[in-house]
Amino acid sequence: MRIALTHNLKITGSAEEAEFDSPETIAAIAGALERAGHEVERIEVSGPASRVLARLEALQPDLIFNTAEGHKGKTREAFYPSLFDELGIPYTGSDAYALNVALDKSLTKRVLASYGVATPRARLVNRTTLDSGALDDVSFPVIVKPNFEGSSKGIHREWSVCEDAYHLAEVVERQLARFEAGLLVEHYVAGIDVACSFVDGLKEASGARPSSAGVPEGVLTPVEFVIDPQVPGSYNVYDFNLKHAKPERVTRRPAQLPPQTIERIRSLTARVVRALDLKDHARCEFRVAPSSSRNQGHDVYFLEADGLPTLQPGASVFVAAAQRGVDFDGVIRAIVRSACQRRGLLQLLEGGAQRRSKRTALRVGFTYNMKRGEAAAADAGPAGKAGPGAASDSEAEFDSPRTIQAIASAIESYGHTVVQLEATPDLPRALTAAGVDVVFNIAEGLRGRGREAQVPALCELLGIPYSGSDATTLSLALDKGLTKQILRAAGIDTAEWQVVTTGREKLKPFRYPVIVKPNAEGTSKGITSASVVKDEAAARAAAKQLVDRYHQPALIEEYITGREFTVGLLGERRPKVLPPMEVVFVDPPTYPVYGYEEKQSDTPRVRFECPAQLTPSELRRIEKVARDTFAALACRDVARVDLRMTKDGRVYVIEINPLPGLTPDFSDLCVIAKVAGMDHRMLIGEILAGCLKRYRDARATSPQAGLAAAPAGGAAAVSAAVPAAAPAASPPAGATASPGSQPAPGSQPAPGSQRTPGSQPAPGSQRTPGSQPAPGSQPAPGPAPVGAAPLGAARPSLPSTNGEVVGP
Q: Which of these, 67, 56, 60, 79, lies nearest to 20 by C-alpha position?
């Protein structure tokens, strides 16, 4: 089966991420699913739902294995199941309603009271009820818990248990400031914590004693939590610190209780599961205390239910499953089987039925500019970047053959056919002839301040959806001066600046030092530690040097002293903000600079910390500035924002790069994505997902032809407008070619840029009748695939029964 593993990834270890899954847990679940023969795609759901939606629509999974907790609000656990229901995609676990009820401890208690489940006396306290006397006539001792939290968030051994009204009022006031949705003030029961897990369909061990009447097989052996007696604290409370910071101080073991108490706990668990309608996998937590009655050994009190319990290796469910001889993989398989049985997917699980949806493989044009200088060949290291020995930075923004192959392989891994297209002056003909459905673009362009916009503009002319930002955004973002004007108009802080064209202009009264940069270059070209100057004369000299070297204006801006960060973003209108990465300068000079040499090679002068060490307020400010910058420039799919934060916490935008490097394990964005749980393949899939959504949307508006026959302004229009488009067409008599219209030296397609094996047109993609070349036209040189439609022909459409698209 094709399974999407939806999850929230724990990155920082903060309390806000306490319920999220660690990278190790997600790797363990994915490994178990893969060992069971499934095709697994990990989808980290933090961020805007539109991005998750695009990924799921592109992937079209047979089943979603869901562990996503959600991020905010009282209904956070219910959000993603609701989304999955709306999409019509089956998923593991309980539905939105059950998760909503289970997360609300007070509501759960009220529901279970009618089912005869004993719980400690409790009341919900919030600002409204507090004013009406919610803390009056409380019977002490009590324990104060957040009502809508799990993972023991907000629970502490030292002060959560209150023995008098004064202490209670103090704790409630403190906790309501943090957990505004409400607190549960519950009678404290002295005893031990016991968890009882439910995994539907998990069979009893061979030879084991049958379950009690009415107790499903899936109700496992209760597990108790034994806290090291050396842990300080007056009360036996399994708190947040023990659960997350010092888990080694707690032992999980099968509950050492009389058989009748064990069966009582299992029976209550079965009752709770039925009452709350929990599915596939759940956990109930109880407090067990010596009975005050002489006739019974122990009293059992229900505390809470978890409809989305952790699957961290070593968790209580696996301790209990081991008693039946079932390992980690067996538990994961049982959860999948239970969900498939409920959803009518058992035949698919067992290989006896066709998948519920088929994806259509697309022809993906992959546009790039390739490094081919001697330095690239001699100095490219494992990451494929030119080393410090590079004699020229003319190809600094281009990609090495190794990077290009890594990206192509990532796209192909999603089932697509990749047609490699180097962005040379021949690209218009090659792209039209290639018959691609979409374009994955990383091309930097050859010349001019609008060079990064050349491929997107061409795709728009031909009506081909493409990845990344549009031509307008790429043109604006490459021009640092224009970018700053837009940011300033949007109320986003950026250093005071001036663009100069000669170096002789009258300069603003800057606060020195200033830093001088080329106005329309990336990859920190032209930027070194010498770029920071302390007076006007030096600024003029540095600007004139850059103007002469790069044949473009120079930017002079005030140097911002502070910490430097780079932030990756994925998505569109409300992008997902990846963890900020700090550029830490080692033994820094007075004015450190993250310059060209530092970006091109591993250097001891800088190191990187991701996620950056930030306070919650600092992190919120950085994320807001990055998101606002992304929106101000109308970026889409992917971008990286470079920032500096001063000592007083003010965040300044240095620049934004909507076409960031994608070299595996080297480029800043790839390093950041890896920390966020995305390997290189997944990162490429995230970027491609937006492009595929636009492709589907375009097909939906023109279902008959999709994008196969380009509309006005598409390939046919180009053919009509340029009938004599042979590659060696001569200018009319008396006409001369305009300067700059010839291919730049070295821009011919290099060996290796031709179409790779396996990129032949898919069945059904042959050219249609009437698509022969015009008289006198010649086949285009370069990487156009054999048999592809020539200039002016309709791009072939692929057969599909349902219009679904292969995607990441």
A: 67
pLDDT in tens, 167-205: 999 999 999 999 999 999 999 999 999 999 999 988 765
CA distance 398 to 444: 7
The secondary element (H helix, E strand) that includes residue 269 is helix 259-276
Residue 223 DSSP code = E
> Would you mind telling me the total number of residues written for the chain in this entry?
808
Nearest to 200 by CA among 317, 102, 105: 317
Name the residue type at position 454. Q
Instruction: Give the distance, in angstroms, between the CA of residue 258 and the centroid of all CA atoms in the same chain.
Output: 48
Confidence of residue 761 (pLDDT cuts 50, 70, 90): very low
Q: What is the mean pLDDT of residues 771-788?
A: 40
pLDDT value at 722 more than 60 = no
Alpha-carbon distances of 143 from 73, 167, 170, 456, 651, rounded to whole Å: 23, 11, 13, 60, 42
**Could you tell me if 773 and 784 are in contact, meaning their C-beta atoms sit under 8 angstroms apart?**
no
Distance CA 100, CA 271 (A): 18
3-class DSSP assignment, residue 165: helix
The pTM for the full model equals: 0.76
Amino acid letter for position 217: E
- Give the type of residue at 164: D
In 582-714, alpha helices (H):
596-600, 616-632, 668-675, 680-701
Gap between the Cα atoms of 444 and 439, Å rounded: 14
- Burial class of residue 790 (count of CB atoms within 10 Å of its CB; 0-12, 13-18, 19+): buried
Question: What's the pLDDT band for 808 if we cut at 50, 70, 90?
Answer: low
What residues have CB less than 8 Å from 26, skipping those under 6 apart? 5, 7, 9, 42, 67, 677
Cα angle 70-71-72, degrees, rounded to a multiple of 5: 115
The predicted structure's pLDDT at residue 175: 96
SS3 (DSSP) at 3: strand
